[in-house]
Amino acid sequence: MDRRRFLTASSLMLAGLAAGGGALAAAAGGPAVRLRAGVLRKKFPEIAVPASFWGYNGESPGPQLRYRKGERLQVDLDNTLAQATTLHWHGLRVPNAMDGVPQVTQPPVQKGESFRYEFELKDSGTFWYHPHQKSFEQVGRGMCGALIVEEEKPIEVDRELVWVLNDFQIDPASGEHSPFGQIADHATKGRWGNVITVNGESVAAGRSESVRAGERVRLRLINAATARVFRLDFSAGEPRVIAYDGQAVRPAPLSDDDRIFGPGMRLDLVLDLMLPPGGVLDIADANSRRVLGRLLCSAEAPLRSEPLAAPIALAPNERVRPNLNKAVSHSIDFLGGDAGPPVIGAVDGRPIAYGEMKSKYGLAWTVNSHAAVEEAHHHEPLLTFVRGKTYVIAMTNKTGFDHPIHLHGHFFRVLSINGEKLKQEVWRDTVMLTPWSDAVIALVAEEPGDWMFHCHVLEHAAAGMMAVVRVE
Ligand code: C2O
Ligand code: CU
Questions:
Q1: Is the CB of 454 under 6 A from ligand 1?
Q2: Which of 59, 196, 299, 389 is deepest in the core (most CB within 10 A)?
Q3: What letter would DSSP give residue 74?
Q4: What are the φ and ψ backbone dihedral angles of 434, each rounded to 5 degrees?
Q5: Does residue 377 line the site of ligand 1, with CB under 6 A?
Q6: Is the CB of 469 under 6 A from ligand 1?
Q7: Burial bucket for residue 194 (CB in 10 Å: 0-12, 13-18, 19+)
Q8: Beta carbons of 460 and 375 less than 8 angstroms apart
Q9: Which atom of ligand 1 is nearest to the CA of 430?
């Protein structure tokens, strides 16, 4: 584990105190973490000058936050950026007021202001944090970080790796991000960049991590890119999936569908490194044909010759199972984009043709024939749920593009994809809808409030593919 990036709440507090941040000690009931949103510079081998980035505490990704299930998270966000910002805790079940959606759950945090996020960590898993204000730009400039909540009884491994995958579009000469908010990106597959990073390091640097043959590694992958979809490829070993989006599944070999790793999604894998001393395992992205990172076994004798016998199944988080016999059903159609059938959308309740939607409003996608303006975030709820009731949602992607669809504040059970029932019970907070595909999900409405439901290609969310689900 990379110690430098491994910050527990208490070590962050100590670091803050050492740096003179005396205010950190003030809160009762546990140390608060300060995350200072600000600008920084980063060097990449493929970019001539240090690139300008936005991040937290001088880092992009920001510090890894790590807790135990049941602990309380307390984070003070200080904004030093010229743009207002917020923090959203992707995948976590939080009280609505802590969800970090500007206009909907809190006023955006202006330059010079602070906001205290505080809630109990109900669930273990691999999560992440990112702003929800102008997220296509703010995440696109580097604002994100891993949030790991350890199980009460973690599985036995020799090593844990957390990889935050990212992708940036940077001018190689000037080191500036190319302009954000381009309709040509928003109306197609989103902004795919030229600098792919893992934990903030360009994959062009030939990243490698030293490991020891025979080890059992837990690899936590987080796709924090605004738009890039990875297709994971392992040169050796038999990766087994133990969690999707932080939610335990019965361990199973990585399937072809699992390899498609869209924005917002997480994957927890167990790798038994049955390699000789000096052996390598490359983890690559088949879409970009780049190696994301190499696990390089030392010359030491293997730690063991047979995979560790200890079980790898994670204890699942407690949750209420959907009662499918008493469910209320809804269907949601996603339309739009430059490669789909012509769209008649609605902006502010007024029917509007696709061309005009794009040119006048910068919108290109609809959710049930409605396009929402991101800047406002606030819209009439698409669906209204009653707390404790089960809802089944059939979602259809009527576009030629990938849409990882995300719901805030809930886990949902994926019942089927393209009409095919899933072989095992899978819970997620983000489900990939590949072009012209459909998925049926079920969930029990939880905390009251307005929860965002949107595509995690952040350019798509900004261009209309976003809605509110209200729980009463
Ligand atoms: Cu990862 Cu609406 O968020
Ligand atoms: Cu999308």
A1: yes
A2: 196
A3: E
A4: -75, 170
A5: no
A6: no
A7: middle
A8: no
A9: 1
In the reported structure, the alpha carbon of residue 224 is separated from the centroid of ligand 2 by a whole-number distance in angstroms of 14
Which residue type occupies 199? Answer: N
- Taking the centre of ligand 2 as the mean of its atom positions, its distance from the CA of residue 49, in whole angstroms, is 32
Say how many Å lie between the CA of residue 406 and the centre of ligand 1. Answer: 7
- Percent of all residues in the chain with a pLDDT value above 90, rounded to a whole number: 86
Averaged pLDDT of the chain: 92
Give how far Cα 397 sits from Cα of 227, 331, 365, 424, 432, Å. Answer: 17, 11, 11, 23, 10
Which residue type is seen at 443? L
Q: Give the ligand with the smallest distance to the CA of 263.
A: 1
240-256 residue pLDDT tens: 999 999 999 999 999 99
How far is Cα 380 from Cα 349, in angstroms, rounded to an integer? 10
Q: How confident is the model at residue 378 (pLDDT cuts 50, 70, 90)?
A: low
Q: How many residues are there in the chain?
A: 472
User: Is a pLDDT exceeding 80 seen at residue 301?
Assistant: yes
**Do 397 and 371 form a contact (C-beta atoms < 8 A)?**
no
- For residue 401, give the ligand nearest its CA: 2
Tokens of 273: 């490194």
**Helices and strands (DSSP H and E) totals, the chain:** 6, 34
Q: How far, in Å, is the centroid of ligand 1 from the Cα of 177?
A: 22
Sign of the four-CA dihedral 262, 268, 273, 279:
positive
Give me 76's structure tokens.
Answer: 């003070």
> Residue 251, preceding bond cis, omega within 30 degrees?
no
Ligand 1 in contact with 266 (CB < 6 A)? no
Residue nearest to atom 1 of ligand 1 (CA): 90
Whether 379 lines ligand 1, by a CB cut-off of 6 Å, is no
Amino acid at 299: A
Q: Determine which residue's CA is closest to atom 3 belonging to ligand 1.
A: 90
The dihedral region occupied by 192, where left means phi > 0, alpha psi between -120 and 50, and beta the remainder, is beta
Query: Within a 10 A sphere around the Cβ of 113, how many other Cβ atoms?
Result: 14
